[in-house]
Amino acid sequence: MERMIFAGGCFWCMVQPFDQQPGVYSVLSGYTGGHTENPTYEEVCSHTTGHTEAVEIIFDPAVLSYEELLNIYWQQTDPTDAFGQFQDRGDNYRPVIYYENEAQRQAAEASKAQLAASGRFSQPIVTTIEPAQTFYPAEEYHQDYYRKHPENYARNHARREQFMNEHWGEH
């Protein structure tokens, strides 16, 4: 098994696209990239911890490659928006690919360059690629949010879904 961490706005919206992939063992909502140990949701939302909302994905690379997961990631985010995602604004919602090792860094950089060269977006790709830091699981009520609160999830996911359909086709 390998681990990867993605930040792409509200973590509620980032679990489902990965959770249902063959080869994915677990997807956990949490916080990473900041300077506060064991932050709470309220602390992260206060923009004082430096953390992003992120998902930690444990996967079997023999079934689903890191590169395939990167392709799924790009289709879930607006890679041209450095200051949040969709209705979620602020540094805690910025898009980041956190890499675990040099191979992941190189694959993420290559994937980003490929997306930039594709012409799919008229603005620069601003998603950052940063070394993984300590990942703190979010409170239990945030885990599997899309399953526990499907109506609220759909409402929160609507603008993201519209963007995805405009740029990547129907999902």
The total domain count is: 1
Radius of gyration: 15 Å
Percent of residues in helices comes to 25-40%
Structural class based on helices, strands and sheet pairing = alpha+beta
Q: Can you say what the CATH homologous superfamily is?
A: Peptide methionine sulphoxide reductase MsrA
- Counted beta strands: 8
- Percent range for β-strand residues: 15-25%
Mean pLDDT rating = 94
Order of helices and strands: EHEHEHEEEHEEHH
Task: Describe what this molecule looks like in 3D.
It is globular, with a radius of gyration of 15 Å. β6, α4 and β7 (128-131) form a beta-alpha-beta unit. It has helices spanning 12-19, 41-45, 66-74, 102-118, 145-148, 150-168; strands spanning 2-7, 24-32, 52-59, 84-85, 88-89, 96-99, 128-131, 136-137. It has six helices and eight strands. Strands 7-6-1-3-2-8 form a six-stranded mixed sheet, covered by helices on one side. The chain is of the alpha+beta class and 171 residues long. Helices cover 36% and strands 22% of the residues.
